[in-house]
Amino acid sequence: MIKVGIIGGSGLDDPNILKDAKEISVETPYGSPTSVLTCGAIEGVDVAIIARHGKDHSIYPSKVNFRANIWALKEHGCTHVLASTAVGSLREEIAPGHLVFPSQFIDHTRKRETTFFDEDVVVHTAMAEPFCSNLIGLLSSSAESLNVPYHKNKTVITIEGPRFSTKSESHMFRSWNADVINMSTVPEVVLAREKQMHYAAIAMSTDYDCWKEGEESVTWEMIMETMKKNADNVIRLFIETIPKLKEYDDICVK
Known about the structure:
Blueprint: E1 3-8, E2 19-24, E3 37-42, E4 45-51, H1 66-75, E5 80-89, E6 99-101, E7 104-108, H2 133-145, E8 150-152, E9 155-159, H3 167-175, E10 180-182, H4 185-194, E11 198-207, H5 220-241
Parallel strand pairs: 1-4, 1-5, 5-11, 6-8, 7-9, 9-10
Antiparallel strand pairs: 2-3, 3-4, 5-10, 6-11
Helix pairs in contact: 1-4, 2-5
């Protein structure tokens, strides 16, 4: 049975899109998740939403309990994860307001718990293709039908935060072939992979980080303003894509 976990990022912590929504509190071996699960259905598909940074956005990136969040979604029966996230663009063509469906990541974090396999047994998880190509295909098809500008086959670099990059760092990340930058995809995607869940990120470009001459360097206020303007596109994408998952028989991640 397919069940979809939505991880809400900035401005999308609890979209009012579920039928018969109810809240469920969950405790995990890794402590409390960052919010209760808001559970319901979209067009007959069971959905559970969790707020990555808490419902009041009070949890900064390095303090997000990623392991508890992913464990809670898996324990609740989620087979697929759609994770919204704000990103800075490192490429001219990825303009603010565009959506990005990454296929690769670069981990530039330093302080986070990145695995469930840190006791008793050692498991080396394949990570050559960390994001689900089926989900990326469905998201791309939905974005086209909704006439929402999008990019796929891109690389996201996740930094520790909560500070933004220096100009030198931003240019360095561009030289590493990163296309967008955020503070949340890693270790989230890694943990979902370890739990054999299909994972895709819906990344919204909010700014040009600080590499682009003539553009104002990123601020939190800039991110929130762009997210508020474009959050409807992400919610429309959820509503368009999730019912299509009923047609896919791809429960097992290999």
